[in-house]
Design goal:
It contains nine helices and no strands. It is an all-alpha fold.
């Protein structure tokens, strides 16, 4: 008579394997962080002239090829993770800065200034451009949706646009984010920084986007 199949809870091997993974989780998290940071740094050094090799990245991270492939199936998978990580960092930073502003209009201004500032610092701009250039070459199956970065940034504009009277804050936020991220990309490729006048014009543009259905001037979020 055959033994009945075991569930994960009753399977000693599965239970021990889970315990091993739980113990190793902090080490694995640190490995992934080192690979993401190393990949970003190597990309910055290579610029838009050459794509780094896995060997370059693991050497920078102080890990082995086995360590790399334990977490990423390919270099493209790491590039996608680096792009995702950069987007999350920017969203978190902007959300923190916008929370300090008391009016919706000031929050929109803060958002625009924060996004365009990515082109102002020479080193940050070079890193962002290198990551975008590498991301353009990753496989379609691994590529993040083309609108991913702008869509995630747009989530920060929905509440301010609603407070300012937009009759479709989701769409208006998407439109504004696409436009500003597109302008940021142009600035990065042109190796130029936005002037104060240009930044002010972009702020006015974003504030005008939400006026199609009427507006409440400089309202507070939720007010």
């Amino acid at each position: 008579m055959e033994n009945p199949p075991l569930t994960d809870e009753g399977d000693v091997a599965a239970r021990i394997a889970r315990q091993t993974l739980d113990r190793r989780a902090p080490d694995y998290t640190e490995e992934v962080r080192r690979l993401i940071d190393a990949g970003r740094e190597v990309m910055r050094r290579c610029g838009t002239g050459a794509r780094p090799r896995v060997a370059d990245i693991v050497a920078e991270a102080g890990l082995s090829n086995d360590g790399f492939y334990r977490h990423f199936a390919s270099k493209d998978a790491l590039v996608a993770a680096i792009l995702d990580d950069g987007t999350e960092r920017l969203v978190s930073y902007l959300a923190h800065q916008m929370a300090k502003r008391t009016t919706a209009a000031d929050q929109v201004r803060c958002w625009v200034e924060g996004v365009l500032a990515q082109a102002a610092d020479e080193e940050s701009a070079a890193t962002t451009l290198a990551v975008l250039w590498n991301a353009a070459g990753i496989g379609r199956a691994l590529a993040l949706p083309h609108t991913s970065t702008s869509t995630r940034l747009a989530t920060l504009l929905r509440a301010p646009f609603a407070a300012l009277g937009s009759d479709d804050p989701d769409l208006d936020a998407e439109l504004a984010a696409h436009a500003v991220v597109g302008r940021l990309t142009d600035l990065l490729w042109g190796r130029t920084s936005p002037s104060r006048a240009e930044t002010e014009r972009v702020v006015r543009f974003c504030l005008a986007v939400r006026t199609a259905g009427g507006h409440r001037d400089a309202g507070t979020v939720g007010g």
